[in-house]
Amino acid sequence: MFRFATRASKHRTAGIFGAAFTIRESTKYDTPSELKIAPNQRVEKQFRFGDEQTAAMKIDSLKLEVPGYTRVSYNAIGRENVIRVSSDTDALVDAVRAIPHGSHGLELYTEEPFGSSGHLLIEIFLAQPAEVKEISCAGSSVTVVEDGVLMNNHPDEEVVVKQSGSGDLFVTSGDTLVRSLSLALSGSGSLHFSAPNVVAVDKTSLSLAASGTLQMFANRLETGSAKLGVAGSGEVQLGTQALIAKEKVSASMAGSGKARVFSSTIHTPQVKCSIAGSGDIRVGAQDVLAATSLKSSIAGSGDITIAARTAQCDSHGISIAGSGDVDAGDVAVTGTKVSIIGSGDSIVQAVESIKYSKLGSGTIKHVGPAPRNVSGSGSTHALQQLYRHDTRSVSDRIAMGWKAPTAIPVKEEAFDKITVRPSSRSRHSSSHDYHVEIRSWSDLVSQVQGLFGFNTRPAPMVSMPPMPPIPPMAAPPTGATSTAYKVVGSDAHAKSDFQLQQNGKREP
């Protein structure tokens, strides 16, 4: 309890500057039988805001450090901010805390130790749609953020989504217009973001540290620059039907991880790929890659593959130091410059010119007849001709190497497949991955559409469908006249506990 009092007082102090509000926690009650989604959903409690004004206030940030399964949705019917916590054990319900986070944010965490293992479901219902611009999740929980929660029509705002630890975060959004979109994952967990159409005016950033998996799928992504970054052994995937970047598309790698950019069409002035280590970067356009310049650099033993069925590119600069490989043989460019120091290999296709320098045992191979203008330094046998014999396109082969998309877990899994243990916060007793064989890019597109519920046609902004109503508080025990609440986070003027009478009046 000391820890709770310390954290609450911190936010009350912030309230002096207008940065906090009141959250009330109900007493525990038995889950009504008609509201149960599983036989072992036994006990629950609710968090509600202090008055009608704050109950309907916007929430723009969420900080979640809780185990089990958490679902965040827009409360279209109730128009009230409500948090419902349910479990099969009293200890887990007791452990969950909710406090203000800044002026319009919520923070959920747990007090430890839990005392016992069990299952935990947390449902966060927000009064205002599409206002959350920052989500931060930590730990090993499964978190699902539904359509209608994330900010999606603010061209001057930055949207940030973070996951740290071994948990899984699933975010689904409608058509999105923001200044920038940042997805960040650290740890061994996963972050999955999907939306029909995304416009991020300045940039779209996908960054991964450690060994997890970060995926973003959209029908159409239009942005200033699309940046993928991996530090470690994890994998980042960006998949679209149309990718338009006004400045550049870049993928950088430090370590042994993987970065994948795949789209039916890619339009950008520059595609830039760089590896330090043994990582693997693949950029593929199923139909058209239109870029003024391509740049590929490797320091180490990594691999870079750039492929397209049709290419409209002026130049490609390739630099290899070590034993890395660059395969751009499916991308016809006007001119190519290649520099190899070591035993690396490059495959290119140039229409007018190839200029190279080579020191070591590396090779430079060109697909089809060599261009008329070839110049370079190094071995006289450095340039070799290559003919491809595989009937499948390189872009389809890239798609086959992708991790299959993962189905969004349903909340019933909170009482089945997702178990909370005191030592490790949350563990999956069985996998909820959705496995599918990917044979081509069209296979991947169809699976994404099926899993996340959107089609290939750009759609206008639409109002979100209403969510089911919030279940009412259970009736108080026989003989009781009121349901007890306590203040768990408030401004400087709300310091005492109170009881909320059934008729809505407060009693000291």
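The record above closes out task 2.4. Task 2.5 opens with a second protein, given below.
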Amino acid sequence: MVLPSVKRLSNRTTLTQDASLQETAKPMKDFNELGDTDISTSNQNSKEAELEASQSTLDDALEQLMFNMVAGHLAARKQDITEDYIEQRAVVLDDIHMAFGNFEKEASAAHEAQLKRLQDLLAQKANIEAAMAELLVSLQKTYV
């Protein structure tokens, strides 16, 4: 479907043939020659400038206040995070030391049990070897 074309009227103003650009331009007054209306305008402009200056001063003060508040908030948050980190680090280190301490105790108990078993086996071996030596001596007496 094709939309119908609409001719739009331009909102731009053009110079007519009767008036040239130079004729439509208003002559500028010399800045040194201030009239009565110019003085009141100048006073009004200076008041506006003072208002803008005070407004910019207020804006700067408000901006500084906001900056200080945000910086304080961030510093407090950083301090809280640092304190939490230190606490958690201490807890984790204690847990690690306790885990290794428990492991050391269990490993030590297992090691002691293994050593006792080894000593028992060595004692059995010595008894078996002694019995074998006695049997060997009795066999030698029998055959000699």
